Amino acid sequence: MSVSLGPFAMGMLQFIFILAVIITMVTAWLVGKRYKIAIGDSVFHVLAVGIIVARISFIVRYFELYTEAPWQIINIRDGGFDLWAGVVGGLLMAVWEVSRNRQIWQPLAITCLSGAIAYAAMSGYHEYRYGGELFVPNVQLETLDNRTVYLNREYLGKPMVVNLWATWCPPCVREMPLLEDAQAKWPDVAIVTVSQGDSKQQVLDFVAEQGLNLNDMLLDHNNRLSNEIGSFALPTTLFFNADGMLIDTHVGEFSPARLQQAIEQIRAE
């Protein structure tokens, strides 16, 4: 579910996208040599415009949330992109590049198609290997009042956000007020935080220090949930619909807009 590169972590699909971009640029160089025409700049323009349009489309949809923290607009690690808006933007840029130099249409088409196939193949394999219908894991956890609960039974029939965090993780700490706001804004959604490896006293001290009022804070002393889902990067957030099916995931710190987008998805399912 996640990939760690030294101190940096990202979701597997983000990693696949970056790898597909690299493959596309290498293909542009190889195809350019074959056709004896430079297309690297044109391919870069298509990719850049596609990414920018995808980001702008997302920001426009959730603009009111970015007014409270405008710096989040440039925080592309939050994963806020509209795929199909980006595809349309990239195609329009490709048409513009070809209109300026008709000789590049064939190598540009081959390169862009190769990149799309690479992304589809890698993401398809990932879905086949790790995807399918994933449901709430059957993991035994502990509440702050010493009850034992099973994650897949405790919140049956409700959409659920499960946030894996730890008291020593700064991005996790920054997310807590957003989760508290989400709990008040969407009372029909279970907002569940699962501490990874912290002791009960550490979590209680943290809650008191931060003045938090989260209803469903669970303890996972042995990191069972991280092991079950295959993500050891913190924070990691899972979004399940009312049937318990995994609809979306987010690795790393989320923005208010990204959190709202994912919650809207699980409430609509």
Key words describing this protein structure:
single chain, 269 residues, alpha+beta, Glutaredoxin, 2 domains, two-stranded antiparallel sheet, disulfide oxidoreductase activity, Redoxin
Briefly, what is this?
The protein contains ten helices and nine strands. With 269 residues, the protein is of the alpha+beta class.
What does it look like?
This protein has 269 residues and is of the alpha+beta class. The chain folds into two domains: 123 residues, no CATH class; 129 residues, Glutaredoxin (3-Layer(aba) Sandwich), CATH 3.40.30.10. The protein has ten helices and nine strands. The strands form two sheets. It has a seven-stranded mixed beta sheet with strand order 4-3-7-6-5-8-9. A two-stranded antiparallel ribbon has the order 1-2. A hairpin with a 5-residue loop joins strand 8 and strand 9. Helix 1 packs antiparallel against helix 2, helix 1 packs antiparallel against helix 5 and helix 2 runs antiparallel to helix 4. It is elongated. The model has no long low-confidence stretch (mean pLDDT 92).
Poorly predicted spans:
none
Could you say which overall geometry the principal axes of the C-alpha atoms support?
Answer: elongated
Sequence of secondary-structure elements: EEHHHHHEEHEHEHEHEEH
How are strands sequenced across the largest beta sheet?
A: 4-3-7-6-5-8-9
The mean pLDDT is: 92
- Portion in beta strands: 15-25%
For the secondary structure, the number of strands is 9
CATH architecture of the largest domain: 3-Layer(aba) Sandwich
Count of structural domains? 2
Keywords: Cytochrome c-type biogenesis, Disulfide bond, Membrane, Redox-active center, Transmembrane, Transmembrane helix
Pfam families: LGT (PF01790), Redoxin (PF08534)
Subcellular location: Cell envelope
GO molecular function: disulfide oxidoreductase activity; phosphatidylglycerol-prolipoprotein diacylglyceryl transferase activity
